[in-house]
């Protein structure tokens, strides 16, 4: 009996110890601001929010409409090369095509060149996971046990560098731009570096440490769909090779939608192109390597200028307009309800 009596206070102490301390914070007794919502404060909040969103939305749409842009579909215009690429055994045969177009007006300022793909789904779960971040950071070139399968190693055991379905499907068309004026052809200078994000170039992608890249990637092989190894992606600029190649970095940032565009080049503003691209006749010279007919896709080349809000995408402006209209409409509805209830209150007070 004594043991039972002594155990009871212990159990009570154990249960009491689980309660929060008797402090203002843990007992939620701290002073708090409880706003008194009046009709004036509520209506002013809705109307001011609506006015702000509507003004920002109009500004964004006006800015987006001022962007000069031209889009050219070359997937059908290079039909001969497209048919050649349908047969994978012709991968080593070079196929060139040209697409002529005309700029009706000058494209002033910085001009950006994009490639666009339609009906190419990069948001498939297994596709998104098919990469090795450890390998892309240069820590382990010969990665095997990763999500990269079946693009991790060849049948003889040679590891792929880089591995994975994303890297293997990298866009590899080579595109140049020329300006045709007075029966002469002027090559438009293009910048192929400085197009990726700083964090990608300096943090997320690193080459393995070695005295040269070819030695760093010794014992590895290029992905099956590539024409050259990763350390020779840019034969003109040694600093733009390996995993820190700008084209490779941009491709590895997968898109959430089936139709997307990626930055390919920037127009170098020098010579005749100091102010941008003058109006006139131009030609895209394309080395066709990326087949799209097998998934019923299309390929585009896009030339576009930029404004303070970015490119010609009106989505953000439309979103602000919708939010502003909704806030303003809500303000008017609350005003109508308030006036109606006030009239009823006045009526009952008089009678």
Automatic annotation (TrEMBL):
Its main location: membrane. One of its GO terms (cellular component) is plasma membrane. InterPro entries: CDC50/LEM3_fam (IPR005045). It holds the Pfam family CDC50. Keywords: Glycoprotein, Membrane, Transmembrane, Transmembrane helix. One of its GO terms (biological process) is phospholipid translocation. It is found in: Membrane. The chain crosses the membrane at residues 37-62, 315-341. The keyword Flavoprotein does not apply. It comes from the Eukaryota. Belongs to the CDC50/LEM3 family. This is Cell cycle control protein. The lineage of its organism: Eukaryota, Metazoa, Chordata, Craniata, Vertebrata.
């Amino acid at each position: 009996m004594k043991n039972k009596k002594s155990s009871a206070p212990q159990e009570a102490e154990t249960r009491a110890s689980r309660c929060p301390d008797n402090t203002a914070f843990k007992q939620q007794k701290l002073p708090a601001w409880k706003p008194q919502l009046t009709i004036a404060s509520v209506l002013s909040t809705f109307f001011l929010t609506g006015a702000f969103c509507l003004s920002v939305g109009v500004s964004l749409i006006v800015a987006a409409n001022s962007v000069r842009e031209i889009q050219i579909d070359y997937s059908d215009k290079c039909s001969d090369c497209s048919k050649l690429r349908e047969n994978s055994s012709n991968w080593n045969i070079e196929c060139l095509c040209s697409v002529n177009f005309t700029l009706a007006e000058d494209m002033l300022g910085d001009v950006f060149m994009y490639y666009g793909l339609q009906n190419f789904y990069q948001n498939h779960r297994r596709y998104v996971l098919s990469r090795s971040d450890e390998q892309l950071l240069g820590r382990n070139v010969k990665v095997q046990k990763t999500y990269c399968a079946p693009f991790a190693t060849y049948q003889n055991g040679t590891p792929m560098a880089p591995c994975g379905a994303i890297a293997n499907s990298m866009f590899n068309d080579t595109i140049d731009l020329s300006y045709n004026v007075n029966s002469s052809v002027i090559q438009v200078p293009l910048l192929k570096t400085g197009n990726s994000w700083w964090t990608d170039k300096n943090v997320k992608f690193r080459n393995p440490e070695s005295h040269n890249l070819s030695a760093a990637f010794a014992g590895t092989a290029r992905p099956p769909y590539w024409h050259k190894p990763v350390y020779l992606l840019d034969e003109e600029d040694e600093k733009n090779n390996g995993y820190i190649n700008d084209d490779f970095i941009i491709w590895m940032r997968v898109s959430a939608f089936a139709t997307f565009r990626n930055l390919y080049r920037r127009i170098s503003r020098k010579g005749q192109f100091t102010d941008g691209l003058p109006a006139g006749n131009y030609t895209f010279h394309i080395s066709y390597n990326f087949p799209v007919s097998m998934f019923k896709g299309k390929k585009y080349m896009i030339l576009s200028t930029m404004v303070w809000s970015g490119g010609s995408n009106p989505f953000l402006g439309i979103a602000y307009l919708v939010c502003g209209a909704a806030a303003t409409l809500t303000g008017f509805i609350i005003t109508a309800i308030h006036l109606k209830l006030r009239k009823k209150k006045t009526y009952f007070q008089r009678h």
